[in-house]
Specification:
Strand content: over 45%
Largest sheet: 9 strands, mixed
Shape: elongated
Distance between the termini: 74 Å
Structural class: alpha+beta
Helix content: 25-40%
Oligomer: single chain
Radius of gyration: 22 Å
Order of helices and strands: HEEEHEEHEEEE
Number of helices: 3
Length: about 190
């Protein structure tokens, strides 16, 4: 066997080892991110098993987030993409969050809004008495819901709304826009704000 062939084989072995090492590191990052997310949700009283599909320098992606009972969840999200850049993180900001295919079920009983399994997250102020999981995002530039569906069960009947929602956070404050189309017990409704 010639020296040239041995170098090619050595290069191939080193390249294959590098690819395997990179794949193992990527899988490990996703597993760590998944555990941190589950711990954070658990510390806020929410049992969920989301799957981190990607995690890297530009952000991460969560798929299949379900909160509530598996038969009738209070919240289902197809995909959440959290974006950032190293520069935005150095400036203390994350790029934003894009939420795709969110389905939220709410109820109106006894004159108040009921959010089911999400109640613990929505009602609990961050007083520092929950365990610190270390999983915090810096302030966001924007949150965008693509194809958001909200169902509100009321004593008068079901109200359903569907559409995009966007909130932008900047030095001038928070700006939000939404365009919903829906149905109510009294007929169809459209909202643009």
């Amino acid at each position: 066997m010639g020296a040239r062939r041995r170098r090619r084989i050595a290069l191939l072995v080193v390249t294959a080892a590098g690819v395997l090492l990179a794949a193992a590191l990527a899988a490990g990052r996703r597993a760590l991110a998944e555990r941190a997310l589950v711990r954070w949700l658990g510390a806020h009283g929410i049992r969920a098993a989301p799957r981190v599909a990607a995690f890297g320098l530009g952000g991460f992606e969560i798929r299949g987030l379900t909160v509530g009972s598996s038969g009738a969840p209070d919240l289902m999200v197809g995909r959440i993409v959290v974006r950032w850049s190293p520069w935005s993180l150095l400036a203390g900001r994350a790029g934003g969050i894009d939420v795709f295919g969110a389905r939220l079920k709410l109820g109106w009983t006894d004159g108040r809004l009921a959010a089911g399994a999400l109640e613990t997250l929505l009602e609990r102020p961050d007083t520092g008495d929950t365990p610190d999981t270390g999983a915090r995002l810096p302030p966001l530039e924007a949150v965008r819901f693509h194809d958001l569906r909200i169902t509100l069960a009321t004593p008068a009947g079901r109200i359903a709304a569907r559409g995009p929602l966007e909130a932008v956070f900047d030095a001038g404050g928070t700006r939000a826009s939404a365009t919903f189309r829906g149905t109510t017990p009294w007929g169809p409704v459209a909202l643009a704000a």
